[in-house]
Design goal:
The complex is a heterodimer of chains A (307) and B (264).
Chain A lengths: L3 E12 L2 E12 L3 E5 L6 H8 L7 E6 L2 E2 L4 H6 L1 E4 L11 H11 L4 H14 L15 H12 L6 E5 L7 H16 L3 E6 L2 H7 L2 E6 L2 E6 L1 H9 L2 E5 L3 H9 L8 E5 L2 E5 L3 H10 L5 E5 L2 H9 L6
Parallel strand pairs in A: 3-8, 3-9, 6-7, 7-8
Antiparallel strand pairs in A: 1-2, 1-4, 4-5, 9-10, 11-13, 11-14, 12-13
Chain B lengths: L12 H15 L1 H22 L12 H32 L2 H6 L5 H34 L10 H4 L1 H17 L6 H15 L11 H8 L2 H14 L5 H28 L2
Helix pairs in contact in B: 1-5, 2-3, 2-5, 3-5, 3-7, 3-10, 5-7, 5-11, 7-11, 10-11
The chains are: A alpha/beta (307), B mainly alpha (264).
Chain lengths: 307, 264
């Protein structure tokens, strides 16, 4: 037995010649929110499909709640709650029926889950839509119902595959608020996303995946401090002017410069960055801001188009 | 590895899937019921009575009498086929219903078995109703000659399972709704017209009779004809065995194809 709820060791997934997941290892501990960040095609969803026993592992070891996923897929799925990337609510059933029928798939009777369903509908602000058609719900409501559905079996781990993709900002913030509430109640979560803000807000620890590999693992703020530094200077200046400004930076001080189109990023510039911003005096042309997850992500995965 | 096991991995979960389909259908029971209710009356009126006036059979029986076992075989076949070809494809591809179910302790094999059992249920409901209508109209139309006819209900389980399984096989390889035109035109249409429901096979050339042997519907019609007329023959057991073997084959194929589609 292990203290980790999900334990992956040397996990590999091939589709023919294509390597979707390339030898990754991680642990997800009880009560934490673990994030998997990465651009499209990084292997996030494939990893989730392997954990939920809907994609056979090519090589490596994968255990959920101490159970081998390949050997005990039914038991593994019984302790998971899955929120897929695309809502797959049952449009042939009403809102409340969606939860009841889903509970039945876990062998739970309507009586057993009546109270849990009432609570879930209330928590996700769907109690007045219990007898609505699923198709009549807004995108945000459908997402919330999908999360409520994933909680119907009282899972040990809630798995969320890009839970807020395609939602408008209000709906996204509502989902975040509800996920934070679940987290405060001790629900263990595995979350994939390509919204850096989402990862920073919700995740205790995260990994960044790229081309099937894990590039880095850590706590969001540690990663920002280590990779991007506390402050980032953004310059939008013609090259001669920019070069003159950068020449003022103390050489060999470990700062790095990234050029993206007409925008120059200076990482780890320290006091020199603040002085440069002050010297230009125009926040549109020289902007000093705190480092963020987006910087970490872009520095590690490169800035080229990834698709 | 479960995904590649040779024997189907079926549990009580199959019944959960069956329940899901029952609940979804009962939500629209009025529409569903209307279709089932009208169908046999329309076809008996149009084919049996109207067309039947112009048909003279060697055996001397009325066309509507000849037609009865065929209708009993055809309409349940349609019920199972619509449910497990179009219906299953919608649940598989457009609604993501299978994907959502296999994220729970229910296996792909459970899902497919539940779908096939539901298709069979629809076929049984449909067949029972047609038989009931035939009994009700019997004083005027004499479609049923023997109490053995009641056995057509339990026997109907076999073609229900068979046509549901064949349909699931097709749904599992279809990539678009339009692909069902192939299924309808190449499988269901020939079965409809050449399955021995509308004309006696005995009068056909030898090669048509040989071809007919490979038609599952012909065996179903033969069994029903024996039960409805009361002329029980040993060959009916042969037809039953034929159906059983083919049903097992298509069931296992359906499970395997759907695993390939969903687990990758």
């Amino acid at each position: 037995m292990t203290s980790a709820l999900i334990e992956a060791r040397g996990l590999v997934k091939h589709y023919g010649d294509f390597v979707a997941v390339d030898d990754i290892s991680f642990d997800i501990r009880e009560g934490e929110c673990f994030g998997v960040l990465g651009p499209n095609g990084a292997g996030k969803t494939t990893t989730i499909r392997m954990i939920t026993a809907t994609s056979p592992v090519t090589a490596g070891n994968l255990r959920v709640a101490g159970l081998d996923v390949a050997e005990e897929p039914r038991k593994v799925k019984a302790v998971l709650g899955v929120v897929p990337q695309d809502d797959n609510l049952d449009p042939d059933l009403l809102v409340r029926q969606n939860l009841e029928v889903y509970a039945r798939y876990f062998g739970l009777s309507r009586d057993e889950v009546r109270q849990r369903i009432d609570e879930a509908l209330e928590l996700f602000q769907l109690d007045d839509r219990a007898t609505s058609n699923v198709d009549d719900l807004s995108g945000g409501m459908q997402r919330r119902l999908t999360i409520a559905r994933a909680l119907v079996n009282n899972p040990q781990v809630l798995i969320l595959d890009e839970p807020t993709t395609g939602l408008d900002p209000q709906a996204r913030h509502l989902v975040w608020q509800q996920l934070r509430l679940l987290k405060s109640r001790g629900v263990t979560m595995l979350l994939t996303t390509h919204y850096m803000e989402e990862a920073t807000h919700l995740c205790d620890r995260l990994v960044i995946m790229h081309r099937g590999k894990i590039l880095v693992e850590g706590r969001p703020h540690d990663l920002i401090a280590e990779v991007a530094g506390p402050q980032v200077l953004e310059l939008r200046l013609p090259s001669p002017e920019r070069d003159a400004l950068l020449a003022e930076f103390p050489q060999g001080d470990g700062f790095s410069v990234e050029q993206v189109e007409d925008l120059t990023y200076v990482f780890g510039g320290g006091p020199a960055s603040a002085m440069a911003a002050e010297r230009v005096g125009d926040p549109h042309r020289a902007h000093l801001r705190p480092g963020n997850m987006e910087d970490v992500f872009l520095l590690l995965t490169g800035r080229g188009l990834l698709d | 590895m479960t995904a590649f096991a040779l024997t189907p991995d079926v549990s009580f979960g199959a019944y959960r899937v069956w329940q899901r389909n029952r609940d979804a259908t009962l939500r629209n029971w009025k529409t569903e019921f209307l279709g089932i209710a009208i169908e046999p009356f329309a076809i008996i009126l149009a084919l049996g009575l109207a067309l039947g006036q112009f048909v003279e059979l060697d055996s001397g029986e009325k066309y509507v009498e000849f037609l009865a076992p065929g209708l009993l075989a055809l309409f349940p076949m349609f019920a199972a086929t619509f449910e497990c070809a179009w219906g299953s494809y919608v649940r598989l591809e457009m609604q993501g219903t299978y994907e959502s179910i296999i994220a729970t302790p229910i296996s792909v094999d459970d899902v497919i078995t539940g779908e096939i059992l539901w298709g069979t249920t629809r076929a049984l409901v449909n067949g029972s109703y047609i038989l009931l209508v035939s009994f009700i109209l019997n004083p005027w139309l004499h479609m049923v000659d023997s109490p053995w006819a009641i056995l057509a209900v339990p026997v109907g389980v076999l073609p229900g399972l068979l046509f549901s399984s064949i349909s699931i096989c097709f749904a599992s390889i279809a990539r678009a709704m339009s692909h069902f035109a192939y299924f309808f035109n190449l499988v269901i249409n020939p079965l409809f017209w050449f399955g021995g429901a509308f004309f006696p096979f005995d009068a056909m050339p030898r090669w048509v009779q040989i071809l007919g042997w490979f038609m599952p519907l012909k065996h179903v019609v033969d069994i029903y004809r024996g039960l409805i007329t009361g002329n029980l023959e040993w060959s009916m057991l042969g037809s039953l065995a034929w159906l059983a073997v083919v049903t097992v084959f298509f069931y296992v194929l359906a499970v395997k194809l759907m695993r390939r589609r969903l687990i990758h």
